[in-house]
Amino acid sequence: MNPDTLTWLILLLPLLSAATIVVGIGRWSNLSALVSTGTAFLSLVFSVMLATNGEAVASIAYPWIDLSPSFQVNIGFTLDKLALGMMLIVSSIGFLVHLFSLGYMRDDSGKSRYFAGLSLFLFSMSGIVLADNFVMMFIFWELVGVSSYILIGHWYEKNSAAEAGKKAFLVNRIGDFGFMTGILLVWILTGSIYFKEIAQAVGGVANAGLLNAAVLCVFAGAVGKSAQVPLHVWLPDAMEGPTPVSALIHAATMVAAGVYMLARVSFLVDASAVAGTTIAWVGAITALLAALMALQQDDIKRVLAYSTLSQLGYMVMAQGLGSAGADAGMFHLYTHAFFKALLFLGSGAVIYACHHEQDIWRMGGLRKRMPITFWTFALGTAALIAVPFTSGFWSKEAILEALLQQKMHGPYAVGIIVAFLTPFYMTRLVLVAFFGPSRTKEAEHAREVEPVMWIPLALLAVMAVFSAYRFLAAPLVAAGHADFGHFFSHFGLTATLSLVGLVGGVAGAWFLYRTAQKDPISIPLFRDKFRIDELYLFFVDKIQDGLARGLTRLDRDVIDPLIARFPAALSLAGGSVSRALQTGNVQTYAFLFGLGVVALLYFVL
Amino acid sequence: MQVYYLEFFVVALGLVMLMVDAFAKLQDKRSLARLGILGLGVVFLLLFAVQSPSNAASPVWKFYAAPDNLSLFFKGVALLTTILSLVMAIDFAPIVLSKIAPPDQGAHPQAGLGEFYSLPVFVCAGLMWMASANNLVSIFVSIEVVSITFIILAGYMRRNVGSLEAGVKYLILGALSAGFLVYGFAWLYGITGSMELGPITEALAKPGVNSTAAMFAFSLILVSLAFKLGAAPFHIWVPDVYQGAPTPITAFLSVGSKAGAAIVTLRLVYPYLTSPVLGTKALAILVVIAILTLLLGNLGALAQKNLKRLMGYSSVGHSGFLIMALASTSYPGAVNALSPVAVFAYYIGAYLLMTLLVFLVLNVLNAADTGETLDSIRGLAKRSPFLAGILLIALASLAGVPLTTGFIGKFLAFKIALDAGQWMLIAAALIGAAAGFYFYLKIAASMYLDAPSSSDGAAIPVNLLTKVSMVILAILILLTGIVPNVIVKLFS
Questions:
Q1: Residue contacts between A and B (CB atoms, under 8 Å)
Q2: Which pLDDT tens digit goes with each residue over B323-345?
Q3: What is the ipTM of this complex?
Q4: End-to-end CA distance of chain A
Q5: Which of A351, A602, B101, B332 shows the greatest Cβ crowding within 10 Å of its Cβ?
């Protein structure tokens, strides 16, 4: 098939599946699940076919809003290596999550709704990846917001889940508002919404201040979606969703969208040094804060959530370098997608086996009872903490080296610190959950999960270790793969420091947690996530609500009478006049008719 | 296939239906309507088989325009409207039967119903002819074919005072307006010496044309067209007739008759607008009429309590938007990227979808004897979520909520008015659109937020054909709201 057809199919099949489930076959939940999984599989197959075709030029751009010559929005596709690679990541993780969900959500009462949500999510995500212009990207960006709201709040009868869905949506809206402003600014500055044209026009923009503002506004969108400080608060709460959703949203897709978008517009970051530095620092701060918070979490999924934040911080740091770091960032996004999906699905298997127990201090001893889950989880952890020659190791090195090369010493130092913290909290997690004696009855009765759930784990484990190697990475990412020659010939500061961090972190955690029955250290500030949520709550409660009350009064007492009630009264009066003409008497009508004719003739002649 | 065969087929279909009614012993005369729907559906498909004329010199083309996208589009509109009106008429049969004289001893229990189904087919033929008429005589004849049939249909329920009143009012005022039309035509012929639109256009563009006489003719013609379109100040008949006529006929009248009047207006007004001598003055009149119509129609609807009457005002308001599109034509020095004809046609198409959808729902409510006041649909969402959902889509579109076809229609109308620099028009249209939001969404709100007025909570039955029609229309409303180019591209 030609690239055009393939692309349209990749984009529209999940939509079709979602629509079919919602409109037609929703009452047969098993069929819905199969349809959704089937389309996810087809998406994967078509993505592979598209990627093996090589970089292609999509020729069909469907003109959607056509107000030529001033403005035209197409539904058009970019099929460069960046998009193709991302599409493969999205569709492969998407398919594995579908597969895993078949087991995990087997007895869920809202199964059809869940799978419709997954399909819609896949559709929205594909749209972001394939978009060749800002407007289309923004629309799908919002669709991702909607579908993540549906998925996170899937168990809406649980109050915390409903609240988490709402929170994710609202916090994202803040970022999206910035994103939209950024798009409009870029449009004003360059006169185009198409990435290709913007890339050409951006060099000619004279107003540097406005350009900085525009790029920062665009970055605000990424801050929301990729959960960077200060808009990171939604992601940990979003763990209320079903665990496969966490894997999908927080490993490979939604949070990666921000990073992907930054890579897509790296030419904008290049054009604005101020914005680049800001982006790198925001990433660094996120990486550090999230790692600190992860140290003290007890919920297995929350630890993973904070580690995701921290890793996203790495990727955003790299994007701050513009096109010099975009490839390294995407490389880490790509390896991270696999090992983080593995870790999330692994934690899902653990939670499933322990009858929905999420507190790691109420687990323990799972290593023997769930050997496959344990070993795959261990491999995922190894990749996350960057054990040499696993995938995560190569990509993290790439980011750190890029930072060093571009003389971003501050973020570089933060990156090294985080490289020590990550092994510490992950080793803590594995030791507490999998080693030692079982601490509760649930953990004692845990059994290995069924094949439909462990097969995705095994597949992902293979990817977690080997995805960085050339035979897997070459077709998938634009640049970056494991390079032994380069590693040994340039063995220097970065490698030494990160190895020291790794050994130190693992050893520290081993020493503290090997036999611990409860947490030996307690740092309330980290446990309470630096009280940022409380701060926001205070802000919303006191300042925003106060402002809102004031504005309400203004609205009710001044604006309403002036803008609404007066014209309303006037219109109703007008309505009565026009009604008064309606006497119902046909003679009157004929008379009025004649009057109209006379008036018209008088007017004309 | 030659384009004029289409009308032959439709007339033949009407005759066949009359014959079947007279001679075949039908148990249930509603089958006649189904026959009509089927036949018109076939003719609709034939629209796509129309070829450009082989013999351009034939005298036929002196009173019948060669096919173009515009005339074919309006023929399609006429066919679809008739089909959907017949769908409604099937549901409406019991009410019609109860409001006409009871059959004599031994006669068919549904006597008198056959004509109710056959007459709309003849109207349809007339409307299709209007879309192609390019000669003053053929324009007049086709308009009268439609009007006279509508008089019968509006007063069809002769045991019902409202219906009779509607018929009489439409008869008297229609006759009045027809008189103006003929008088205007006579003047136009006197000035230009031709009955054909082509030569008339040329004659009016000549610098030496007698401007006073020409504008006199224009005024007379415009009065009549404004009457048919329901444009102010000649709209007074609209609410009364809409309220009184049988609901399917109201729907047919509000869409079919307006579409026909719209295409004729387009053909008759264009020669004036493009004339360098008369253009500015003709445009000024159109602007005044558009402003009046936008304001009177939309503001008048604010206080209405009866749904059919409200739809009457709504119809007047939408005429305002149509004339606004027309009045944004060829303003000297204006560069329009959009063709006003495209906007005009798009608006009619959008209006068809949403208005007929509202009437489909109203018709079902009528047939279920729920009443047609605003109170009667309070809490409808609890009683019949399907009907409420469908009506919600239609109302959102009428109000102009984005992602519906009504929004695109309004958007395009505003856009070309903006391009043409018609600020007064835009101001009036803004007021009209704002009022529209209020009175359309008030209905939607009362459906969803208020408690049902009666304790009768049973769902209202909807038969399959009606249900399918509703769903198709709703989908089309959303689809053309999202991808408007399907229609816009037809005319550019």
A1: 83
A2: 998 888 754 444 445 677 888 88
A3: 0.81
A4: 68
A5: A351
